[in-house]
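Lecture 7 notes: from sequence to structure.
We start with the chain below.
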Amino acid sequence: MVCATEVFQAESPDIGGKPEPTSPSRGLQTPSGSPQTLSDILSGQTILVTGAGGFVGTALIHRLVDPLLRVRRVFALIHGQDASSRFPKDLIPSVAKVNEKGDFDTNKLVVLLAGDCSVPGFGLSAKENKLLQDVDIVIHCAGNTKFTLPLPNAIDATAGLAYTTCQFTLGNAKVRTHIHLSTCFTGWFLPSGSIVHEELVPAIDSKVQYEEHPNTYLHAKSIAEGIVNAVGRDASKNVAWRILRISTLGPALSFPTPGWGAGHTSSPLCASIAAEVVDNPTSILNPEAELDTIPVDIAVNQILGLTAAAHRTGANNPSYPLPHGSNVPIYHIAVGHGSAKPIPMMTLNKRDFKIARPYVSAKNIVAIYRPMMTKVVRFDTSRMRRVIGLPLYPEAKGWSDKGKANGIIGGGTMWVTDAPVDMTGFEVDLDTALEKSGGWVPYLQLIRDKMEKTQHGL
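Predicted structure tokens for the same chain:
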């Protein structure tokens, strides 16, 4: 099987000879010296967040209103006319609405916009769109996370929204950075035992038996990545285009509160806690199957770190060798290959981590998440870790020299594409955060308890 995004591939630039791995600052055409802080880079910037009412979008808004970041304005685009009803109550004091004259309370940091990413201009009024002319950074989170939509509907609900948001960026002279959020699971068509690298499409190997995308959602997300690459590759002289893939999101580890987001419908982790115990799991589960889970607050910090890195580097993409890669750099936000921290799927099936009154049947949980249960595919995070200042896992070292000779489909991805960012004050190291909090067991118990309280109306 050939991945749908293959049609959008760009040949790697001919830079003559075998390149050497870069250091975090080599060839980036960025200011020399120590890395700038997240606050230094985002200070005074105006940011548009699409899908601001979703799990990631809302978590992003919580972080962006932090006074330490000193952002100038956040435009929060939410689908539907009654947008304010879908916004967390604790954020309302920071939120302004646009009136009929196109005015809003400028003392408020967040401007709430009820729109639709599937139509040009987001379905906003001319006055609202005029306000968006001040946007410096676009973070596209919008999309439908249902796995069971017919493929044409899934494409409309995912790839269509990605294209419309790209068109907004192309038509806005001030935007300098476009961040497209995707999923690491676009590489789940690879055979069990593979590693998904931070590149658009893995090198197609005639000796490898590829699978189909396990559901229409992942198929559509793969197409959306191809669209962003096709647009961003040709327009990259003016805008820094980046694709950030996220693995499985879990509720917050600590920010804005421990367990924030527990029970969210788009989290497979929450779904597993709400599900019945699967009897005789060994007949279904690969004994090595894991759920690469990253708490949403850690994920958001990494998203903003990578966004700031792209914004600092700008559109000057350095040459970097990816066998069948793209001019739009990709980063993975995940536990990652080499970490000892993924949650074993067998652990999630234990009664200790289930709510007392499950509302997801064992049959349904298996039907929806069977692909995660039956195979092991891990995610390379080496490029992401270098940019936000995290050490590489031992398994990642040497990939840049060995590539396919090391048995890794797609080759190594050790070349850094953006200037590093100093993330001091913002937790980005999941390994360290888990050590401080006691590991996954208290985290899973916290989520279970919060979901039970919600179920009982407490």
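Points to note: The first strand starts at residue 36 and ends at 37. Confidence is low (pLDDT under 50) at residues 1-32, 318-325, 399-414.
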